[in-house]
Amino acid sequence: MNNTLETIYSLRSIHGNFSERDISPEDLKTITDACVRAANASARQSYSVIVINDRQTIKDQFCYGGSKALLFCIDFNRILKTAAYLGQEFNTDGIIGFITGSTDTILAAQTAALAAKSLGIDSLFTNSIHRCDITKLNRAFDLPVKYCFPLIALILGYPQVEPGYMKGRLNGTGIIHYEKYHEPDKTDLDELVSTYDDPQRHMGMIHDWQDKGYQHYLDWFYRKWCSPVNTEKESEVYSVLRQAGFIV
Ligand SMILES: Cc1cc2nc3c(=O)[nH]c(=O)nc-3n(C[C@H](O)[C@H](O)[C@H](O)COP(=O)(O)O)c2cc1C
After folding, report:
1. How far is Cα 34 from Cα 24, in angstroms, rounded to an integer?
2. Cα 224 to Cα 132, 168, 207, 233, distances in angstroms
3. Residue 208 Cα, ligand 1 centroid: separation in angstroms?
4. For ligand 1, what atom is nearest to the CA of residue 167?
5. Please, what are the domains in the chain?
6. Tell me: the pLDDT tens digits for 168-200?
7. Is 207 touching ligand 1 by the criterion CB < 6 Å?
8. Hey, which of 34, 96, 97, 127 would disulfide with 92, CB 3.0 to 4.6 Å?
9. How many CA atoms lie within 13 A of 105 on its CB side?
């Protein structure tokens, strides 16, 4: 394997046990410099990255501790301001702009995680920001109400305890489709279910699903892990996106 593939294959999340060791300002700068190298639509980088140094703020806002955190937000404000400065107009393009901007933002976020890993720094992506009150989070970081939306937080640090194994991934049927989309048939579904059941594959969130009385891991997943629709949360997100101008 070359160095790039080694970095990609060694990437894994650290769940809540980062050590007290701090990331140096130089490494942090290397990570932020690298993340903006990601591809971006129309060369406009429709995102903002908030760098958070304060451990308590990281814990308070993202529910997980770490040395540093990066909050990746889709953001058209800089682009709109520059347009106005030049007496030009800019169309944020509603939901289409939101999709494109989100793609820019997430590519930058994953590039940050990979750059960090290449420096020996581990990470955890969290969408805890959407489980909490998004308006409060926006206020905590002075995010603009219009044309800005926090998509994902990336907590960075050094692990306190090395994870015992790498989490598995599906990489065949149902994930990679050759030439045309392939609807999984019964054989594919049986294979998928047994892949999740195989303790050697480390696919799931828990290992003791059998002790909990489930026939398959995925029975536990669908019944216990996946939350029922939270209409209140859904309305809040719609309302924030509407206020931001991404949807009508
Ligand atoms: C959008 C997104 C949100 C996530 N949110 C959380 C989270 O809130 N808490 C957590 O412990 N892990 C979170 N993760 C990490 C996943 O649990 C982790 O990537 C997955 O279990 C695979 O493990 P690995 O990254 O170690 O390979 C998140 C990952 C993504 C991409």
Report:
1. 15
2. 21, 20, 14, 19
3. 19
4. 27
5. 3-163 (3.40.109.10)
6. 999 998 999 999 999 999 999 999 999 999 999
7. no
8. 97
9. 25
